[in-house]
Design goal:
This protein is α/β, with parallel strands linked by helices. The chain contains 9 helices and 15 strands. It is globular and about 70 Å long. The protein starts with a strand and ends with a strand.
């Protein structure tokens, strides 16, 4: 049994606590939060788990093998760094840190300590995204033309980060995992409608070589909740609607065929292909349960997580570039080579 602690009992922490407690492969030993009233609510459900308000009590506990962080993003770097230096395996809520430099420091610390550093890009472990990754990797979609995502709802406003860091990080982690391609540049625009607060509407465009374009629209001020992604390829296209109760992924045998008239070389002919649609069966295992299982696997085997520090770095680099572009009203910002 891997002995685990969880730090942070706000929005996401209780989900991690439940999954670590029910995993069967991990033993939840300690939970930490600065607010004692949060711990009091958990104490009745987990009477055998030690509840503390002092983070150092977790970091210095010699009996803990691993710690999961579900704290504000600004605290990820110092807390994870302290845990890694204390010899703990660390799972960090997304995004991994607030700057690429901080992420690189965490990667280096994990390598020096020979410990697992994993970022909780939860959507990567959903049955829907795993199926999409399988379809793209198999070549079933052909050449990928575009990745287009909308993630909007009314609230929840964040004070520490803008809407890109809060919502677009999900889409960027999915895009990074599914496409497996190195982006070249980023352009972003956004606006805040609450004085003194971060941007609540954002539009992000990511440029790749070969004509592939990715676009993400995120919004805290939408009257409806939308979680929809389109991936267009030369052979097939995918619609991923996370709010669909059953058929979350639909594969369309639709697209265009471009040809030129042999007699009139300058006459461009476009024919439309309107084939069938099918919805593949998906694994319905809770994504966070799969995250915990994968974290345990990596600890036991000494293997590298699918969502390792490098994956976290790629996402944070895009978010950093997006912030710089947003300050320049959409001026494209080049990304460093992988």
């Amino acid at each position: 049994m891997i002995r685990v602690g969880v730090v942070g009992c706000g929005y996401w922490g209780p989900n991690l606590i439940r999954n670590f407690a029910e995993s069967g492969r991990t033993e939840l030993r300690v939970v930490c939060d600065l607010q004692a009233e949060r711990l009091a609510k958990l104490r009745a459900r987990y009477p055998a788990v030690r509840m503390v308000t002092d983070f150092e009590a977790v970091a210095s506990d010699p009996e803990l093998d691993a710690v999961a962080l579900a704290t504000p993003v600004g605290t990820h770097h110092p807390l994870a760094l302290r845990l890694l230096r204390a010899g703990k395996h660390v799972l960090v809520e997304k995004p991994l840190a607030v700057t690429a430099q901080q992420v690189q420091e965490l990667i280096a610390a994990a390598e020096r300590a020979d410990r697992v550093l994993m970022v909780d890009h939860t959507f990567v472990f959903t049955g829907a995204v795993r199926k999409i990754k399988e379809l793209v990797s198999s070549g079933a979609l052909g050449d990928i033309y575009y990745y287009d995502s909308v993630r909007v709802n009314l609230g929840l406003f964040q004070h520490g980060v803008n809407v890109l860091w809060d919502l677009a990080v999900h889409d960027l982690s999915i895009m990074d995992h599914v496409l497996g391609m190195q982006p070249q540049a980023v352009s972003a625009t956004g606006v805040s409608h609450v004085p003194g607060e971060p941007e609540n509407i954002g539009y992000l465009t990511v440029f790749f070589d070969g004509g592939l374009l990715a676009h993400v629209h995120v919004n805290w001020l939408s009257p409806v909740k939308v979680r929809r992604t389109l991936i267009g390829g030369s052979r097939k296209m995918i619609l991923f609607d996370d709010l669909e109760p059953s058929e979350k992924v639909k594969v369309y045998d639709r697209g265009i065929t471009v040809d030129r008239d042999r007699e009139q070389i300058y006459n461009l002919l476009i024919s439309y292909r309107m084939g069938d649609m099918w919805a593949p069966q998906l694994d319905t295992t809770e994504a966070l349960r799969s995250v915990v299982a994968h974290f345990a696997d990596c600890i036991e085997r000494g293997s590298r997580p699918v969502t390792d520090g490098a994956a976290g770095l790629r996402v944070v680099r895009i978010l950093e570039a997006a912030a710089a572009s947003m300050r320049g009203r959409g001026q494209p910002v080049e990304l460093p080579a992988a």
